[in-house]
Amino acid sequence: MSERRYDPNRRQRLIEVTLDVIAEHGVAATTHRKVAQAADVPLGSLTYHFKGLDDLLAAAFTKLADETADGFEATLAGAEGPDAARAAVAALITGDMLGERRNVLLTYELYALAARRPDLRRVTENRMARSRAALARHFEPATAEMLDALIEGLCLHRALAVIPMSAETVREAVNRIVGPL
Amino acid sequence: MSERRYDPNRRQRLIEVTLDVIAEHGVAATTHRKVAQAADVPLGSLTYHFKGLDDLLAAAFTKLADETADGFEATLAGAEGPDAARAAVAALITGDMLGERRNVLLTYELYALAARRPDLRRVTENRMARSRAALARHFEPATAEMLDALIEGLCLHRALAVIPMSAETVREAVNRIVGPL
DNA sequence: AAGCGTTATGTACAAACGTACACTGCAGGG
DNA sequence: CCCTGCAGTGTACGTTTGTACATAACGCTT
Fold it and tell me: Considering the domain boundaries, does residue A3 fall inside one?
């Protein structure tokens, strides 16, 4: 046998690499072999660490959802007062967690897959509940609901548009939803 | 040979069936054979009418984008005056063209695919340009931009949320973006 | 009716896939 | 030092995939 790697928490690394592969090729073209090659591990390593391809995808998307929800909560938790809360929401959209093109694309892949898989459906529902709750600490329930949707729409448009919406317009949109100070 | 069908514009019907298959199984699991079975045509019929699977998907998503853009324009074109324009925007979101769960899911599949395919990228860009232009006939440019993103976000949330946002809240969100009458 | 180009079909094939499984190297206790 | 159990690997197999292609039926002109 060729060489044997000492590679603790390889499982965790495989999950991260899987997200990279999905971001580059899409769920449709994500295979055991592509992930194995990208992570530089033998093919058998994947079936050893994960029950199957579905299991691998579920682990990857769960990590994505958890991390983006963490970033969402952290940004909003750091804001004190209504003024800072508005700035935090705008920062979420233009920032490099939710707003990052890679993460936006991955999120669509997740939504598309979650539509047909109950386990992933729960992942998206949990993520939505967390973002909603984080917003509700600063805004009224109805406003939080609208903001949640606005954030999603703005992230999508900034990731897809040829000329992304300016940060200034993003701030203005948030202000209009939240209302006058 | 068994039986031969008289089936004019089969090509068109195949495109429609393809959208159904994508909606049910996702792009990742859409194959020549599934579409052929769903449309009740022989396998060879697909390679006859379309250059390949990519071509078929492109045709299907182009049809989706065109139809939703048509609906978008038609609804907004029928509105006269700012008041009607607001109602039209709300109707788009809660209506059965953009707002329909099936179409929302298909649109995510499209976005996910378009991220990696220039031809489909142009399809989404064209659709966005049309919706933006339709909004710009009733609202200021910056407001149209915000509304466009809001519509997208609200459609997504209504399709994915366990308890979809009420039509009342949708109207309120639109009003806040557009501003006081 | 006979020929002919277009439309349409069934089949065959190579490539790529997920996954099972026999196997190998390593660590730790006896 | 040997043995045993587990972590990790390579390969092989059956299935499904996209697509090419030889063939067949049809419509139309002659």
Answer: no
Residues of B with CB under 8 A from a CB of A: 24-28, 105, 108-109, 111-116, 124-125, 128, 142, 145-146, 148-154, 156-157, 160-162, 165, 169, 172-173, 176-177, 179
CATH number at residue B149: 1.10.357.10
Tokens describing residue A6 = 């000492």
Instruction: Report yes or no: A130 and A67 within 8 Å, Cβ to Cβ.
Output: no
Nearest-angstrom CA–CA distance, A63 and A59: 6
Cβ contact A177–B179 (<8 Å): no
Q: Examine residue B5 and state whether it is found in any structural domain, yes or no.
A: no
* Residue of chain B nearest A171, judged by CA positions: B146
Q: Into how many domains does chain A fold?
A: 1
**C-alpha torsion sign, points A145, B74, B121, A31:** positive
- Say what the pTM is: 0.93
> Average pLDDT of each block of 10 consecutive residues along chain A (181 residues)?
65 96 97 97 96 97 98 96 97 92 96 96 97 98 98 95 95 96 76
Output the six-digit token pair for B150.
Answer: 């809001």
Average pLDDT over residues B52-80: 97
* d(CA B73, nearest CA chain A) in Å: 19
Q: What is the pLDDT of residues B72-107, one digit of tens each?
A: 999 999 999 999 999 999 999 999 989 899 999 999
